[in-house]
Design a protein that fits this description.
- With 71 residues, the protein is mainly alpha-helical.
- Helices cover 56% and strands 0% of the residues.
- The chain is built from three helices and no strands.
- Pfam families: CMC4.
Protein backbone atom coordinates (compact mmCIF):
# COMPACT_ATOMS: atom_id res chain seq x y z
CA UNK A 1 0.00 0.00 0.00
CA UNK A 2 1.52 3.39 -0.96
CA UNK A 3 2.42 5.87 1.76
CA UNK A 4 0.09 8.80 2.26
CA UNK A 5 1.15 11.99 0.51
CA UNK A 6 2.55 14.44 3.09
CA UNK A 7 0.18 17.33 3.85
CA UNK A 8 -2.62 15.82 1.74
CA UNK A 9 -5.12 16.12 4.61
CA UNK A 10 -4.36 19.84 4.99
CA UNK A 11 -4.70 20.39 1.25
CA UNK A 12 -8.07 18.60 1.23
CA UNK A 13 -9.28 20.66 4.19
CA UNK A 14 -8.30 23.85 2.34
CA UNK A 15 -10.05 22.71 -0.84
CA UNK A 16 -13.22 21.88 1.09
CA UNK A 17 -13.16 25.28 2.79
CA UNK A 18 -12.69 27.09 -0.50
CA UNK A 19 -15.57 25.11 -1.98
CA UNK A 20 -17.85 26.19 0.87
CA UNK A 21 -16.69 29.82 0.79
CA UNK A 22 -16.53 30.62 -2.92
CA UNK A 23 -17.19 34.31 -2.41
CA UNK A 24 -15.26 34.70 0.84
CA UNK A 25 -11.96 32.82 0.50
CA UNK A 26 -10.48 34.88 3.35
CA UNK A 27 -12.48 32.58 5.65
CA UNK A 28 -9.97 29.87 4.71
CA UNK A 29 -6.84 31.74 5.81
CA UNK A 30 -6.20 29.32 8.70
CA UNK A 31 -6.41 26.36 6.32
CA UNK A 32 -3.83 28.00 4.05
CA UNK A 33 -1.55 28.58 7.04
CA UNK A 34 -1.99 24.96 8.18
CA UNK A 35 -1.00 23.67 4.74
CA UNK A 36 2.08 25.87 4.49
CA UNK A 37 3.15 25.01 8.05
CA UNK A 38 2.83 21.31 7.21
CA UNK A 39 4.85 21.77 4.02
CA UNK A 40 7.53 23.75 5.86
CA UNK A 41 7.79 21.02 8.49
CA UNK A 42 8.14 18.36 5.77
CA UNK A 43 10.83 20.33 3.94
CA UNK A 44 12.69 21.03 7.20
CA UNK A 45 12.65 17.32 8.09
CA UNK A 46 14.01 16.35 4.66
CA UNK A 47 16.45 19.25 4.27
CA UNK A 48 14.34 20.60 1.38
CA UNK A 49 14.34 17.32 -0.52
CA UNK A 50 10.85 16.13 0.42
CA UNK A 51 8.18 15.83 -2.22
CA UNK A 52 4.43 16.17 -2.02
CA UNK A 53 1.85 16.96 -4.66
CA UNK A 54 0.03 18.90 -1.92
CA UNK A 55 2.88 21.37 -1.42
CA UNK A 56 4.36 24.16 -3.50
CA UNK A 57 8.12 24.19 -4.10
CA UNK A 58 10.26 24.86 -0.98
CA UNK A 59 11.19 28.42 -1.99
CA UNK A 60 7.49 29.31 -2.44
CA UNK A 61 6.69 27.95 1.03
CA UNK A 62 9.59 29.86 2.59
CA UNK A 63 8.57 33.12 0.91
CA UNK A 64 4.90 32.70 1.92
CA UNK A 65 5.86 31.99 5.55
CA UNK A 66 8.12 35.07 5.57
CA UNK A 67 5.39 37.25 4.05
CA UNK A 68 2.68 35.94 6.41
CA UNK A 69 4.17 35.82 9.92
CA UNK A 70 2.07 34.37 12.72
CA UNK A 71 0.19 37.14 14.51
Amino acid sequence: MPAETPCQAEACDLQACLGKNTYKPERCDQHVRNLYKCCQKMYDATEGKGESTACPMPNVVQRWMKDHPQK
